[in-house]
Amino acid sequence: MTAHSTYKGYGASSAGAVGPWVSVCETNWGFVISSDTQWSNRSVLIERVCAVAGLACLVAACGSWLFPQVNASVPMPVDVPLRLASSLTMAMPALLFLWISDRGMGSEVQIDVVKGCLRRGVCNRRGKFRVQSKVPFSDIASAYIKRGSTKNDLCQLHVRLKGSNKVVYVASGSEATMKVLYDRLNQVLRPVKTKMPGWDRVGRRLLPAGAAS
């Protein structure tokens, strides 16, 4: 996947805030909107801590089986269940920590113009993306910006779904940032009506005939 960042540097929660709130990466199938806040940087640290903690608990769970019986007064039929219970007690948090580390804590929204859908999910520190929800463009009624109650509050960009009151969160940041994303999203969601000989419609994009196969 080819990608580069753009729109960086927009948005802040207050006048004293530092750093961009939104990062947009262009890809060969659309673009990715991701959070670029202090929390996103902290999530990487949390994932690493969970990985270390998970490995430590896993070593502790297996360690009791690598050493001989310490208390000779404890009979073997009793020692084995005790070790098994101890291993299971340590293995459960180990698996939980490792799952959190692999799953990731950073949020992303992928706008796929080739497949014609919006995907929301989580991304880990290695860039592995897991889809949590997927909405076809045909199910989206419109996009709108929800402004904050005060001038220092962040604005939020949402999309409305057709035939329901449900909305899907896309991003948050300054009003200037959300207006840029709003215009970009509307360009993608606007139906492509142009038809030309030798061109095929793939999602919301026109490609040379046969290029999509």
Descriptive tags:
alpha+beta; PH-domain like; 2 domains; three-stranded antiparallel sheet; 11 strands; 32% helix; elongated; disordered N terminus
CATH fold-type name of the largest domain: PH-domain like
- How far from one another are the termini? 18 Å
CATH class call of the largest domain: Mainly Beta
Structural class: alpha+beta
Global geometry: elongated
**Count of all domains:** 2
Number of helices: 3
Strand content: 25-35%
Q: What is the topology, as strand order, of the major beta sheet?
A: 1-2-3-4-5-6
Structure description:
Keywords: Membrane, Transmembrane, Transmembrane helix. The chain crosses the membrane at residues 49-68, 80-100. The radius of gyration is 24 Å and the shape is elongated. Helix content is 32%, strand content 31%. A hairpin with a 5-residue loop joins β5 (117-123) and β6. The longest helix has 28 residues, at 76-103. The two termini are 18 Å apart. It is of the alpha+beta class and 213 residues long. It has three helices and eleven strands, in the order βββααββββββαββ. The chain folds into two domains: 4-36 and 108-208, Roll (PH-domain like), CATH 2.30.29; 43-103. Mean pLDDT is 75; it is low at 1-20. The chain has a six-stranded antiparallel sheet. α1 packs antiparallel against α2.
